[in-house]
# Entry
Amino acid sequence: MKNTALKIEKLSKEYEDFKLDDVSFELPKGMVMGLVGENGAGKTTIIKLILNAIEKSGGQIDIFGMDNTKEEIACKERIGYVADEDYLIVTSNIKNYAKAFAHIYRNWDQELFEKYAKMWNLPPKKKFSTYSKGMKTKAMLALTLAHHPDLLILDEPTAGLDPVARIEVLDILREVVADGDKSVLFSTHITGDLDKIADCVTVLINGKVTESMDIDRIEEKYAVISGPLESLNVTNKDLCVGVRRGSVSFEALVERSHLDSFKNVSTRTPNIENLLTFSIWGHREDIVELGGENNG
Amino acid sequence: MARKKKEQVKYNPSYSNVTRTKKVFRCLTGRTNIVISIIYIAMALIMLAACVFGSIFDTNDFLEDKSTIATFCCTSGFMAFMLFTLNSCIPNDPAAASKARGNLDGCATIAETMMHLPIRKVDAYKLSFRSFMISSAFVFFSSVFPNVMIIIDDRFEVVKGTLGIWGTTAAVFILVSYLLSFYVIRGLSEKARGIILSAALVIYYIVWIGLMLDFADKFIDIDMFGFLSGYVGIALSLICIIAIVVIQKAVVEKRAEKTAWYQNK
# Structure
């Protein structure tokens, strides 16, 4: 527990049309975890539950060993949160926010905040309504980083940003996580954002965790295979995490231990995007009947 | 340089959680909120002062027009209600907050910002309750003071009916707006909550206009509501205020300590 920044156990949340089901994963201290999934997979719901914004139906969330609801203030003092949908009051400005943060965070570092604000050209007295989306994200990052959080929670921080702003925000994040002091939970559906940043990844499909592992383990555990459609049959298709089929060929993500079951296929090393997309396709194939049965 | 140092805020460990939450609220909302709040308070105070001084020093003239008392009372009540709305940081239903964000240019995000910071929901509720009680104090004073005047001065007998209706309307309005604003009644959809709150406000206006322009006299015998004034009127106000405080302490704050920011979501 001492080396765990965030521990989620059997977390569930039920809505009328969506269920977060039995979610468990652990984020070790100093690690960057990518929380990946489609839009609507439940990533933001998990983050809202971590922040005690919404009521959980069951399970447990511990932040640095503390219950996130019973010790809410102590937990949140150590959390820095950057959202996709900004929570900035558009009629206010970053100077007002910095004052508010100075009142509420013991570790508030005004000099560091001013350094970031100057470096990222954030006008202190201009209303947030005049900020671009990229500037708002940078403003939230400046405010968040200036209170020296131990755990950064980033909820799709690059969503909706133009390419330049996205690259700039990712550069900032790379710099922030470079020293390995901070634990980061980075929720995104743009898996490319996690390249060179993430140490581990948790895949969320329709409210369920399908995989939670170190990035290095993806290469060790899985392989992407491709070959003629004939190589896919009734027996081995069930061994695939997910399959993408064309008219004559297919691509699939399989565990390396099952590679022997596939003949005439070539293999390559998967990345986070492969893990996510094939997991999604695998889930969809549970619903859509595979024509592959005829190939057996 | 000296000015810069003066502006720099630092974490003060001696602050209570509610005080710290209040400081954050003030910083987030900025000076405009303070200025508008002061204007509302000033207007409510002016209306109440006019009512008090008018009834004490110019009693005969004051009573010649029975509608005067309704105007003073209802206007101060309206100002007080606006004051609470302006200073509330209760987390609303996310869908309502999102809609309000569009309509009010960001006011709804105060609670959304707060829920990400080291602030407890119960402290946001406590802070909002303070604001509600300040607002309610205006309304109750505007009801209790004329009732005291009725008891000590026989000449006020002529406005007994008006005061009876006003006092009862004010008490019901305050109670309903409290129960809905602080999510005491659970299970109501945001739409239903809005409709009931709007209906309460409309009824409040109708009573105000009816009493102010003497419309009510044409449809009902206002004097028969006189029994709701005097000691009964004061008791009604006290019961209402005590009920609100008890519900707040025994139910709302206890529930807020245990529940997430967005209730039932």
Remarks:
- Chain B has one domain: 15-258.
- Chain B touches chain A through 37 residues (CB under 8 Å).
- Residues 102-107 of chain B have pLDDT under 50 and may be disordered.
- The radius of gyration of chain B is 21 Å.
